[in-house]
C-alpha cells in the first residue's frame, strides 16, 4: 500500500489540516494507497515554492536543464516495471499498455530536455542604421498543470518536461483517481536533481477549489489542462481574469473512414488497436467508423471476429487486452449510449453487455461493435470513452468527409486507402489536429498533439510543446553613434 503526502518545495508534507483520501484499484475495488488531500493553503504553498524557485531555475543553462531531464528519463526507464504496476493498480489498463505509457513518458522527458538547447531567439534587420532589434524567448514563469486519469504518467510528462525545459517551474494537480503514479514520478524528478520548488504536487479531492486557487493567483503565468471539454471551458473563462497563457487538450470524437480500396485486414487491425486501447478511454480513440458500402459487410465481419477474441479482465493478469472502466459512472455512460443506439435501430455484431465484478466494485463493458448506426444516435454525436465501435456506411468520398467533419470536436481522424491522390486530399480536408493515413496510432513524442474546434488550444509534443511555455520578448537597441 502506497502512502504519500503533498510534494512541496522538495519535501513530502502532510496536508495542512492532515486530511488524506484513499485510492482504489478499479479492477478489484481494493484500496491501493492514500495521498494528501490539499487545502487552499496547501495550493498556495505550492505556488509560493514554485515562484521562489523560478529565478534560479530560469537562469540555469539549457545544457544543465537538458542534463537533469535526461537523468529523469533514465530513472523513469530504470523503474519502468514498478511504475507500470502502480499505474495498472490505480487506473486499470493492461500492464503491457502501462509499460508502453511509461516508455512514452521517458521519451517525452528526454526529447523535451534536448529541445531546451534549441530555444532560439532572432535578430531582425532594423529600419534605422542606429537601431538593432532582438527577439528573445523567455519562460512564462510558474506553470500550473492539471491532468486526467486516463494516462497517469504521460499526461504529466507532456506538460512538466517541456515546462522545465523552457525554464518554468510547476505546480501539478493530477487526477483524483490516479495520484500514485504522479507521486512516484515526483520522487524520480527529485532524485534526478530537479531542485527544490521547481516541481510541486498537490493532490486532492476538491478539484474546483484547487483550480480556482491556481487560476486566481497572478504569479501563475500559464495553465495547461488536459481533460473534458466542459471543464476546459470553465478554466478558460476563469483564466481570463488574470489573462494567463492557456493550453487545453480536451475531448475528441475521432472518425475512422474505410475507403473501398483499403486493405481490410490491416484497416480492421488498426481500428481494433485505436478503439480498444485503454478500454476505449483515450481522447484519440476511434469513436465512429464510416465504411464504404461496397466493403461494409466484409470489413464488419473481420472487425467483429477480432473484437470477440479480445481478452477482458484485470490488467494485471497475463494476456488481458481490455481492462475495466475507471468507475461505475463511466460504465453507465457507455451502457446508456449502447441502449440508445439499439433502441434507434442499431444491431450488435460483437459484445454489447456490461459486467460488474468484485461485489459491484469493478465495472467492465464488453468490447462492442454496432452496425446500422445513424447520426440521430447519441453515440454518433458524443465522445463515448468506452470500448464501443459504431459503424455507418457511405457512398461517396464527399459524404464520408462531410460526416467525419460534422462534429464540435476536432482532435484526431483516421482513414484507410491505397490511393495517393485521395490520401493527400482527404488528409487536407479533414478538420482535425491529427490525421492518421493508414495509421490508427499516430501519436509520438516529437510530433504536435492537439485539436481544433472544441478539442482544445495549443499543442503538446515536439518543439511545439516547448513553445507553449515561452514568451516572446522584443528588445530594441538605440545606438549612441
Ligand atoms: P475531467 O473531469 O475534465 O478531469 C480532468 C482533470 O481536471 C482532473 O484532474 C480533474 O480533477 C480536474 N478538474 C475537474 N473539475 C475541475 C474544475 N472545476 N477545476 C479545475 N480542475 C478540475 O476529465 P476526465 O474525465 O478526468 O478525463 C477524460 C476527458 O479528458 C475526456 O474528455 C478525454 O477526451 C479528455 N482527454 C483529452 C486528452 C487530449 O490530449 N486532448 C488526453 C486525455 C484525455 P479530479 O480528478 O479531482 O476530478
UniProtKB/TrEMBL annotation:
GO terms for biological process: aldehyde metabolic process; gamma-aminobutyric acid catabolic process. The active site is at 249, 283. PROSITE patterns: ALDEHYDE_DEHYDR_CYS. Pfam families: Aldedh. SUPFAM superfamilies: ALDH-like. CDD domains: ALDH_F5_SSADH_GabD. GO terms for molecular function: succinate-semialdehyde dehydrogenase (NAD+) activity. Residues 12-475 form the Aldehyde dehydrogenase domain. It comes from the Bacteria. Belongs to the aldehyde dehydrogenase family. This is Aldehyde dehydrogenase.
Amino acid at each position: 500500500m502506497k502512502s504519500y503526502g503533498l510534494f512541496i518545495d522538495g519535501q513530502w508534507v502532510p496536508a495542512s489540516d492532515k486530511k488524506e483520501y484513499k485510492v482504489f484499484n478499479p479492477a478489484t475495488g481494493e484500496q491501493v494507497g492514500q495521498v494528501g488531500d490539499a487545502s487552499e493553503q496547501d495550493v498556495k504553498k505550492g505556488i509560493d515554492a514554485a515562484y521562489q524557485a523560478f529565478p534560479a531555475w530560469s537562469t540555469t543553462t539549457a545544457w544543465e536543464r537538458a542534463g537533469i531531464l535526461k537523468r529523469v528519463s533514465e530513472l523513469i526507464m530504470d523503474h519502468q516495471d514498478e511504475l507500470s504496476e502502480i499505474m495498472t493498480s490505480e487506473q486499470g489498463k493492461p500492464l503491457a499498455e502501462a509499460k508502453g505509457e511509461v516508455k512514452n513518458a521517458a521519451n517525452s522527458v528526454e526529447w523535451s530536455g534536448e529541445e531546451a538547447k534549441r530555444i532560439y531567439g532572432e535578430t531582425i534587420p532594423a529600419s534605422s542604421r542606429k537601431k538593432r532589434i532582438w527577439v528573445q524567448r523567455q519562460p512564462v514563469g510558474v506553470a500550473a498543470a492539471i491532468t486526467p486519469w486516463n494516462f497517469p504518467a504521460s499526461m504529466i510528462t507532456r506538460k512538466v518536461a517541456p515546462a522545465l525545459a523552457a525554464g518554468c517551474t510547476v505546480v501539478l494537480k493530477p487526477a483524483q483517481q490516479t495520484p500514485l503514479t504522479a507521486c512516484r514520478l515526483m520522487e524520480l524528478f527529485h532524485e534526478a536533481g530537479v531542485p527544490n520548488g521547481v516541481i510541486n504536487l498537490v493532490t486532492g479531492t476538491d478539484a474546483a477549489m484547487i483550480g480556482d486557487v491556481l487560476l486566481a493567483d497572478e504569479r501563475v503565468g500559464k495553465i495547461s489542462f488536459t481533460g473534458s471539454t466542459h471543464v476546459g471551458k470553465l478554466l478558460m473563462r476563469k483564466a481570463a481574469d488574470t489573462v494567463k497563457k492557456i493550453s487545453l487538450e480536451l475531448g475528441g470524437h475521432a472518425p475512422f473512414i474505410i475507403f473501398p480500396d483499403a486493405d481490410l485486414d490491416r484497416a480492421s487491425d488498426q481500428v481494433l488497436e485505436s478503439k480498444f486501447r485503454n478500454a476505449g478511454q483515450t481522447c484519440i480513440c476511434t469513436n465512429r467508423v464510416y465504411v464504404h458500402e461496397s466493403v461494409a459487410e466484409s470489413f464488419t465481419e473481420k472487425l467483429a471476429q477480432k473484437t470477440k477474441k479480445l481478452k477482458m479482465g484485470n490488467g494485471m493478469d497475463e494476456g488481458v487486452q481490455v481492462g475495466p472502466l475507471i468507475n461505475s459512472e463511466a460504465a453507465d455512460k457507455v451502457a446508456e449510449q449502447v441502449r440508445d443506439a439499439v433502441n434507434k435501430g442499431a444491431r450488435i455484431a460483437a459484445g454489447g453487455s456490461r459486467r460488474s465484478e468484485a461485489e459491484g466494485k469493478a465495472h467492465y463493458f464488453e468490447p462492442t461493435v454496432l452496425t446500422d448506426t445513424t447520426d440521430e444516435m447519441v453515440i454518433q454525436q458524443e465522445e463515448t470513452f468506452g470500448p464501443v465501435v459504431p459503424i455507418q456506411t457511405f457512398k461517396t468520398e464527399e459524404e464520408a468527409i462531410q460526416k467525419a467533419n460534422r462534429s464540435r470536436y476536432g482532435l484526431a481522424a483516421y482513414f484507410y486507402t491505397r490511393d495517393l491522390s485521395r490520401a493527400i486530399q482527404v488528409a487536407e480536408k479533414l478538420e482535425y489536429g491529427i490525421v492518421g493515413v493508414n495509421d490508427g496510432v499516430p501519436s509520438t513524442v516529437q510530433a504536435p498533439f492537439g485539436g481544433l474546434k472544441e478539442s482544445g488550444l495549443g499543442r503538446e509534443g515536439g518543439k511545439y510543446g516547448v513553445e507553449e511555455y515561452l514568451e516572446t520578448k522584443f528588445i530594441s537597441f538605440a545606438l549612441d553613434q
